[in-house]
Amino acid sequence: MTASTTRRTAAKSRIAAVGAIAVAGTMLLTACGDQTKSGNNNSGQTKSSAAADLLPPEIKAKGVIKVGSDIAYPPVEFKDKSGETVGIDPDLGAALGKELGVTFQFENGTFDTLITGLRSKRYDLAMSSMTDTKDRQEGVDSKTKKKIGEGVDFVDYFNAGVSIYTRKGDDQGIKTWADLCGKKIAVQRGTVSHDLAEAESKKCTGGKKIAIETFDNDLEAQTRLRSGGADAGSSDFPVAAYAVKTSGGGKDFQIVGEQVEAAPYGIAVAKGNDQLTKAVQAALDAIIKSGEYGKIISKWGVEAGAVTEAKLNGGS
Predict the structure, then answer these.
(1) What is the C-alpha separation between 293 and 297, in angstroms, rounded?
(2) Considering just the CA atoms, what is the radius of gyration of the chain in Å?
(3) Which of 108, 148, 221, 292 could bond to 186 as cystine, CB 3.0-4.6 Å?
(4) Burial of 199 (0-12, 13-18, 19+ CB in 10 A)
(5) pTM
(6) Rounded average pLDDT over 241-262
């Protein structure tokens, strides 16, 4: 897996104090199944709006937008106890679908296949805590800087940083990435946490490298840390904060240090699908203006990451 398919690509590190998150619910510790379909209950919409008028005719005719997503990343997207797809992204998808007069149908897939799925037209959009970066926009592997695809366009809808967390009451002096030298970290494969751990390990001295254990999804990495198989874990801040809030009734984990790598999440659209990109951008602007966006962000307690407009390709 290359960095061009990660949730977030490492860029110039910067501290971003995004603030606290307060969310309710119990974490569902389940790994995502590959390519399992799950839809939102906003089908049958007949909304006519300026955004809806921008939709490509073929999508209007189908009445469905297929959304690729790695549905194992609470609270952004995950399965609840009944198996329903829930979270920030599904709620925003439902609101966007209502504005556009179509159903946003979320389809579960491993994260590193989502952009490929856009290119092959398996999905119309990818909405999965995916960070908008220039490399992704241009189809460039962030590590090798080689061209690997046509790239994608992003409609930016949220901002988030990255956090380190440990077992509660057992931080082992870890406050920064440098403190991980000589310790083991559990991370989701291909994420910025993975990239940061690899980059920091190269800086470690005295033979004290960081032992990095990677997993297909973040929930598996959390399970490894919870069992004592690692000293720390790392995720995007909303995900880390949700784990701290909910896992073991708030008794399993604690966040240590401050966030790094603040960057926008974007809804990805394959290059050349300009009509769809403009329709999604217009719909997002509409729900921001109407206040529906704010209600959803508040519901999940992540107001600090809210955006005030739908920017196109705003990542760096």
Answers:
(1) 6
(2) 19
(3) 221
(4) middle
(5) 0.75
(6) 92
